[in-house]
Amino acid sequence: MDDKDPDLGPRFRHDALHALQLLRDLAIVNERTLRELGPLPPGGAPAPAKRKPRRAHPPASLAVQDDEMNPLQRIMTTSTLVAGALAACGEAHPPGKLAEPAPASAATASAPTAPTPSPTPTLSPPETASAAPTKPVADEATVEIERGPPIPSATLRKQVLALLDSLRTLEDMEHPHLESIFRMRMVKNPKVRDGYDYFGITTEGWTYYVETIRLHGLSDPPTITIALDNGVEPWTDEKPTFCTMDFEELANDIVALGYERAATRSTFGNKPSWGFGRDVPENRTGFGVGVYLYYLDEGTEAERACASWLRISGGPRND
To answer: What letter would DSSP give residue 141?
Structure first.
């Protein structure tokens, strides 16, 4: 057994605890957002229409910087623009009835009249259909969170211990075996490689999350994560108010299943944890369990360690 492995499990190329923690926190945030705001409308969120404004550009001969013109130049430039606009509309007026512009002067020039906006063109049915915003195609990879019927936390605890006791071969870490132990159906998660997950809730009101995901090669066994929601929003300073599973009682039951407890506690990413390991010599395999903790009444005499989530890994043994 490798004494440098905090989970007393098989050694991999690198530790992905931080990635698992982020996945757990993201799953909790997504689940609570869906519960509070409801699902997206059919077809997904509507895409905002993008319109490009049409701005009139003055002729190059009139391209004079505004800060370089005096009031008289502004009046003459405006009059020229108005005359050009009226000339463009000459087809709508009989010739000879347009008043000739008087010579512009600072004393007699009147303020220019704002141009009348052109009427909005009426679109034909084909144009109307093409102008309507297109609804985005629903993402086939979107998976709704499936939450099973509430179960007592004591039942969930028994299921976790039953899973640890049943691990004999690497095939026992695949999602069909988990479905038989937890008596639920896991959903394929297309956002991760060969991942399956399940969201559950206890009769006490707190939720939990079960996931299998391949963190390494497709030929390697998956890693199992069982996250227990202690009611604290991720990345906040909130303090937990209840205990999901008492750690010391859970640790004694894990040791009773034949797992060896690590000599010291480990800390990864500010998350304290204890490691457990068990070899299965007849199958030349080994399994490691990392139990990550949070504390009630931390720093007091009544401090109590509780289970936040479990990471279960497995691999072949070469000895």
So the answer is: T
Q: Is the four-CA dihedral 146, 147, 149, 153 of positive or negative sign? A: positive
Q: What's 82's DSSP letter?
A: H
Centroid of chain to Cα 41: 18
Question: Using one digit for the tens of pLDDT, what is the confidence trace for 176-208?
Answer: 999 999 999 999 988 887 899 999 999 999 999
Query: What distances in angstroms separate CA 123 from CA 8, 55, 128, 135, one per listed residue?
Result: 72, 22, 6, 20
Per-residue pLDDT at 268 exceeds 80: no
Of 298 and 58, which is predicted with more confidence?
Answer: 298
| C-beta of residue 278 within 8 angstroms of C-beta of residue 257 | yes
Alpha carbons within 13 angstroms on the beta-carbon side of residue 242 total: 10
pTM greater than the 0.90 cutoff: no
Say if CB 19 and CB 221 are below 8 A apart. Answer: no
Q: Which residue has the tokens 């020039």?
A: 109
| pLDDT of 235 higher than 90 | no
SS3 254: helix
Please name which of 181, 184, 186, 183 lies closest in space to residue 213, comparing C-alpha atoms: 186
DSSP 207: E
